[in-house]
Design brief:
The chain has 166 residues and is of the alpha+beta class. Helix content is 25%, strand content 24%. A 6-stranded antiparallel β-sheet has the order 3-4-8-7-6-5, with no helix packed on it. A hairpin with a 5-residue loop joins β1 and β2. The longest helix has 23 residues. The protein is globular, with a radius of gyration of 19 Å.
Length: 166
């Protein structure tokens, strides 16, 4: 009887550990990394990115609010992924959200991917670059019209390019 109880207790503990790891998002990046067009080793990314870019794009970090120069960017242009230069957001969709991070109400077509982020003991929708998988930020349902969405992006995860005059 005690052997059966021990086995059941161990199985229940293992199941709880797996569910807990899923809830906290452990292993999510490793599962999705295989599906991106641009895949590099950690060492390759470290050579290409600044330490701050690597922290945000590859380690799913977050920059401190109010620290990005892109918060003040008002010119017409496009915001691209700092990891692979894929165009992500048009300047026309940028707005001041008051959060301290560059915010947009819509991405460019086929620019981003999303996945559930259960870190920090809450459920959010993570936004990443469709091409290289770099973590950009999160999307929330409290944005302006026409979408009602707020793409709250880490400025260090992007670069800004001015639109060329015709």
């Amino acid at each position: 009887m005690s052997t059966r109880r021990t086995v059941l207790t161990l199985l229940a503990g293992a199941a709880t550990a797996v569910v807990g790891a899923r809830w906290l998002g452990v292993g999510a990046q490793a599962e999705t990394a295989k599906s991106f067009e641009i895949a590099k080793s950690a060492e390759e990314w470290k050579r290409l990115l600044t330490p701050a870019q690597y922290y945000v794009l590859r380690e799913h970090g977050t920059e401190r609010p109010g620290t990005s120069a892109l918060n003040q960017e008002k010119r017409k242009g496009v915001y691209v992924c700092a990891g692979c230069d894929l165009p992500l957001f048009a300047s026309e969709t940028k707005y001041e959200s008051g959060t301290g991070w560059p915010s947009f109400y819509a991405p460019l077509p086929k620019a981003i991917g999303t996945q559930t982020d259960r870190s920090l003991l809450m459920t959010r929708t993570e936004v990443h670059c469709r091409r290289c998988g770099g973590h950009l930020g999160h999307v929330f349902n409290d944005g302006p019209r026409p979408t009602g969405l707020r793409y709250c992006m880490n400025g260090v995860a992007m670069k800004f390019f001015l639109e060329k005059a015709a």
